[in-house]
Design a protein that fits this description.
The chain is α/β, with parallel strands linked by helices. Among the domains are: about 55 residues, Single Sheet (N-terminal domain of TfIIb), CATH 2.20.25; about 220 residues, 3-Layer(aba) Sandwich (Dimethylsulfoxide Reductase, domain 2), CATH 3.40.228; about 130 residues, Barwin-like endoglucanases (Beta Barrel), CATH 2.40.40.20. Helices cover about 30% and strands about 15% of the residues. Bound molecules: ligand MGD (2 copies), iron/sulfur cluster (SF4) and molybdenum atom. Molybdenum atom (MO) binds next to loops.
Amino acid sequence: MASASSAPNRTAHRICPLCEACCGLELQVAGDKVLSIRGHQADVFSAGYICPKAVALKDLHEDPDRLRRPLVKRDGRFVEVGWEEAFDEIERRLVPILEKNGRDAIAVSVGNPSAHKMSLMLYFTRLAKALGTKNVYSASTLDQMPKQLASGLMFGHWLSVAVPDIERSDFLLVLGANPAASNGSMWTVPDFRGKAKALRGRGGRLVVVDPRRTETAELADVHHFIRPGSDVFLLAAMVHTLFEEQRVRLGRLEPHVAGVDAVRQAVAAFTPETVAARCGIAADTIRALARELADARRGCVYARIGSCTQTYGTLASWLVDVLNVLTGHLDEPGGAMFPRSAAFAQNTIGRPGTGRGITTGRHRSRVSGAPEVFGELPAGVLAEEIETPGTGQVRALISVASNPVLSAPNGTRLAKALDSLEFMVSLDIYLNETTRHADVILPGVSPLQDSHYDVAFPQLSFRNHARYSAPVFEAPAGQPPEWQNLLRLAAIAMGRGARADVLALDDELLAAELNKIAGDRAPALLAALAPWRGPERLVDLALRSGPYGDGFGARPIGLTLRKVMEAPAGIDLGELQPRIPEVLRTPSGRIELAPPLLLDDLPRAAAELGCDDSTGLKIVGRRDVRSNNSWMHNLPLLAKGPLRCTLLVHPDDASRLGLVDGQNAAITGAGRTVHAPVQLSDAMMPGVVSLPHGWGHDLPGAQLRVAAERPGANLNALLDESLRDPLSGNAVLSGGPVEVRAA
Ligand SMILES: Nc1nc2c(c(=O)[nH]1)N[C@H]1C(S)=C(S)[C@@H](COP(=O)(O)OP(=O)(O)OC[C@H]3O[C@@H](n4cnc5c(=O)[nH]c(N)nc54)[C@H](O)[C@@H]3O)O[C@H]1N2
Ligand SMILES: Nc1nc2c(c(=O)[nH]1)N[C@H]1C(S)=C(S)[C@@H](COP(=O)(O)OP(=O)(O)OC[C@H]3O[C@@H](n4cnc5c(=O)[nH]c(N)nc54)[C@H](O)[C@@H]3O)O[C@H]1N2
Ligand code: SF4
Ligand SMILES: [Mo]
C-alpha cells in the first residue's frame, strides 16, 4: 500500500462503532494512514457531533498490541499461526468435545462490541444456531436485559423499547443514566448534552435521580439523590400517587391498554411514606415528581443501567413505562416513542398490532435453575456451569468480543473456571484478561477495515434514519472478515470441517431461511439479492422488505442497500411517529400494563416496605467519556490525563472513615479487596461511593502495554456473582455493600 506521504488524501465516512450514539465520522486518510477524524457535519443523524473516543479510533487502528494474526497456545505460550492452521486446531479440539459431551458442553459468550459490528451481530446467531447449545451468555445480562424483558412483556417484542422524543419534549425525568458521559444507552441520541440544553432553553425541565450528582445532573434543573437499588420503590410510589390523586390519564391509548386496575391494586401498599426511608427521598418529593410528570405537556421518564442492574431491575424498568402510559406520555410526540427502524426490527415484521408476545424459561441453567431469557442464561452462572461436574457441564467456550473476566462480577472465579476448560476460542482484537485463557485467538479486523450497518440502534434512535459505512481501508491480505470466521466455526460445529466453503454455506443458510419465510418467492428474492454477499446481502434483504423498502420492486421509490450506500451522510426518515397499536406484538393486541410475571414478583419488593436503608456503605459504578467498558484503556489518546479509576467519596464519609484525598483506600466487598485512590466529592450521596468498572489491567498474561501502566482497580471484584434479578437474570452491579479504609 502507498505510504501516507505519496498517497493522495481522501475523505471517508464511518459510523463510529464505539458507543450507542452511533455518530457519523469524517476521516481524512492517505494510503493506509489516518490523518484526522472529526464529526461529519452533513450526517443526517448526528450532524457533526463526536466525543474524544472517536478520535482515538486512529490509535485503535494503529495499536501495536491489536492482534493481526491468529494465536495458538502451545505449551502455555501463544504463537502466531496462519489462518488455516488456527481453524484446523479448532476443529481438532472442538469436535471431539461436541461428539463426546453433546452440544450444551460448548458455551458461547458474546460481548458489547458485537452490537457495533454487523459482521458479529448478524453472524453470531448463525454460529449459535449451528452449535445448538443452551449455554448462551452475553453482556446483556450485565446490562439491559431487565428493560428488554419489561418491554417485551408489555409491548410484545424484546426490542420494542420506547425512547424519549427529546427534541419535542419539555420534561424529562432521568433515572440511573448519565448520558452526558455515556452518550446514551437503549436510546441512540448523539449530542445528548446539546439536546438537553435545547430542551431547557425552550422552557422545559430536566430532572435527574441518581446516587451521584452526575454530569447529566449538572445539566439538570433538579437532582435528587437516591439510595442504590431502590428505584422500584420510588417508581411504584409515583404510580401510587397518580392513582391516589386521580391523575391517571390514558388519552389516546385508552382502548389499547389492559391491566390498569391490576396495577392500581398492585401498588396500593407503596405509599410515598412507606418508601421514603428506603429511597432516601422525602415522601413530598416523590408526590411532587409524580405530579410534575402528570402535568407535563410533553415529557416522559427515561431510566437506564443504574435502574437495571439491581435485584428489582425488571420491576423498575416496567414501572418506568407504567408511568409513561398512565400519564398519557407513551407514544405521544415529546414523550416516550417507538422508533420505526428501516431494517431488522421485529416490530415492523408480520401482522401489525398483534403477535406471539415473548416467553422466558424455555429452559433453565443446570446448576442454579436460572430461567432462559431471550435465548440466554445469566452471565453470572457461567462460572458454576463450567465448574460443576455432570451431564451438560460446560467444557469449551467460544468468546466473541467479550471480556467477562473484567466485565462480570468475580472475575477471579471465572478466570479459574476458564483455565479448567478443555478448550477455548476467542474472537477478539486483543490478548487481554479473558482471551489470555483461550487456546486459539482469532483476531477481528480493525473497525476501519470493516463495513457497517447498525442493526440494533435504529430501533432505539431519537430519529428514524438509515446509514451504511463502507470499509475505510482494505483488510490485510488473508485476514477474513469476522462474519466469515463465525461461519467457519459454524461449519466446524455442523461437522463440515475447517476447510468448508463458507461462502457456499452462507448461500445455503440464506436460501433455507428465505424458503421458510418467502416460500415460492424465495428464488426471485435470491436472484434480486445476487449482487451481494455476507452481511451486505442480509442488510439489503432487510431494507428492501422493511417498512421503507422498495419491496423488491413493489415500491420503486423505496430503500435498497444501494440507495443507502449512495448517501454517505445517511438517509433521514423523519421524526418519530405514534405507532400504537401497530407496533404491538402482544397476543392480546394491547399494551399489557400488568404482566403476571411482574405482578408475581412485586411482593418481593413489598416485603421491604417500611425498611430504612440509611446505614452501611454501598458502591456504584460510573462512566467517563474517555473510557469504554474494559477495552479502550490501551489507547494513548484516551489513557493520558488524570487518573480515572478513582474512588469517589463524600467528604463526610471520608472524615468518618479517615480517608484522605489522593491517598489509597482499601475497598472490601464480597470478601475481596481492591485498592484505589480516594477522590473527595460532594457530588456523591453520603453513604455511597463510586468506582468505574472495566479496570484491573494488572493480570498476568495480557498484552495491553499502555493499559498496564495504569491498571486501575476492578469494581467487579467487589461484587457477588450470585446476585441477580430473578426475572431477567441480570447481574446486580449497583449498590453492593462495601467497607472502605485507608490503605
Ligand atoms: N460493575 C459493572 N460492571 C459492568 C458494567 C457496569 O456498569 N458496572 N457495565 C456492563 C455493561 S453495560 C456491559 S455492555 C458489559 C460489557 O462487557 P463485555 O462486552 O464483556 O466487555 P467489553 O469491555 O465491552 O469487552 C469487549 C471485548 O471485545 C473486544 N473487541 C473490541 N472490538 C472488537 C472487534 O471488533 N471484534 C472482536 N472480535 N472483538 C472486539 C475487546 O478486546 C474486549 O475483549 O460490561 C458490564 N460490566
Ligand atoms: N464513555 C463511555 N460511554 C459508554 C460506556 C462507557 O463505558 N464509557 N459504556 C456503554 C455501555 S456498554 C452502556 S450500557 C451505556 C450505559 O449508559 P448509562 O446507563 O448512561 O450508564 P452510566 O453512565 O453508568 O450511568 C448510570 C448511572 O446510574 C447511577 N446509579 C447507580 N445505581 C443506581 C441506582 O440504584 N438508582 C439510580 N437511579 N441510579 C443509579 C450511577 O451513579 C450512574 O450515574 O454507556 C455506553 N457508553
Ligand atoms: S459519542 Fe463518541 S464514542 Fe459514541 S458514537 Fe459518538 S463519537 Fe463515537
Ligand atoms: Mo452495556
